[in-house]
Design a protein that fits this description.
By secondary structure, the chain is an alpha/beta fold. The chain has eleven helices and eight strands. The protein folds into two domains: 30 residues; 223 residues, Alpha/Beta hydrolase fold, catalytic domain (Rossmann fold, 3-Layer(aba) Sandwich), CATH 3.40.50.1820. α3 packs across α4. The longest helix has 27 residues.
Length: 293
């Protein structure tokens, strides 16, 4: 009897500890919400605020920046803990180059609706929602479309593009190669040993998001993308090492994949700005009908 009681107490204690650990993990892995500070008019840009329905009856806030006729459309997805406003340094020159640009806040980011958790696959769901909304806009649905994403948004962009045949070009900015590697780096930063604690964290995260890491890993999803791809990565990136970009390039599905390792860190917006001519040229080549160039 004493043994049974001890076993029950031990089991209850273990369950309680796991519940507390799970709650702590949820809190640690929750993306910070950066508010939108200024309107498009205050940024000196022309465009309109939009609302996009997404999964689980949530709504996404976004901006649609109009471009010139027949110049194509670009959907930009921010990274973890960022928002659409932080992507304006990329959107502004693209609009100036003639492209229509759609920016949106993923769930739990910016001014979009909250949900019970964020994940890279949910970022991809929100990209699909933005593309579905575009098809309801008669002036935009016929335009060729490109996807651009940064960091987690880039990984989600690769995942979304791998499932579609209606994307004309993809630009990945600092995408990680595999969630397992990203999580192991996070564990190392926290000083947590992989076994048994790290192993449990990876298992728990996969259970929460509803996907095995292999099923959503960019090194795997990139192999199913049919359109041209531009991979851009900062050479001094310590959040996602440039070796991840090289791993993605090694798994390229066809010859129309370009790898560019640029000076800069994870948020290499200034350095990418110096290469906007190349980026805009890549998009123009694949989005603009030859007779319109």
């Amino acid at each position: 009897m004493i043994f049974l009681i001890s076993a029950l107490i031990g089991s209850a204690t273990l369950i309680l500890l796991l519940l507390l650990l799970n709650r702590r993990l949820r809190r640690s892995l929750t993306a910070p919400r950066e508010p939108i500070l200024y309107t498009l008019a205050e940024h000196g840009l022309s465009g309109q605020a939009i609302r996009i329905p997404t999964q689980r009856h949530r709504m996404l806030d976004g901006w649609l920046l109009p471009g010139q006729p027949n110049q194509g459309l670009v959907v930009i997805t921010h990274g973890w803990g960022a928002n659409r406003e932080l992507m304006l340094p990329l959107a502004r020159p693209l609009q100036a180059a003639g492209f229509s640009v759609l920016l949106f806040d993923a769930r739990n980011h910016g001014s979009s609706d909250s949900d019970n958790f964020s994940s890279m696959p949910r970022f991809a769901e929100d990209i699909d929602a933005a593309l579905a909304w575009l098809k309801t806009q008669p002036d935009l649905s016929i335009k060729r479309t490109a996807l651009i994403g940064h960091s987690v948004g880039a990984a989600a962009t690769l995942l979304a593009a791998s499932r579609r045949a209606d994307i004309s070009a993809v630009v990945s900015l600092a995408a990680f190669a595999h969630p397992d590697g990203m999580m192991r780096r996070w564990l190392a930063e926290k000083g947590l040993p992989f076994f048994p604690l790290g192993w449990y964290v990876l298992t728990y995260v996969q259970w929460v998001i509803g996907y095995r890491f292999d099923a959503i890993a960019p090194v795997n999803s990139i192999q199913s993308i049919r359109c041209p791809i531009l991979l851009m990565h900062g050479s001094e990136d310590t959040t996602v090492p440039p070796d991840d970009a090289k791993a993605l390039y090694e798994r390229r599905p066809h010859h129309e994949v370009i790898l560019r390792i640029l000076p800069g860190e994870h948020d290499a917006s200034d350095e990418i700005g110096q290469h906007m001519d190349e980026l805009a040229g890549f998009l123009k080549h694949h989005l603009v009908p030859k007779q319109a160039i």
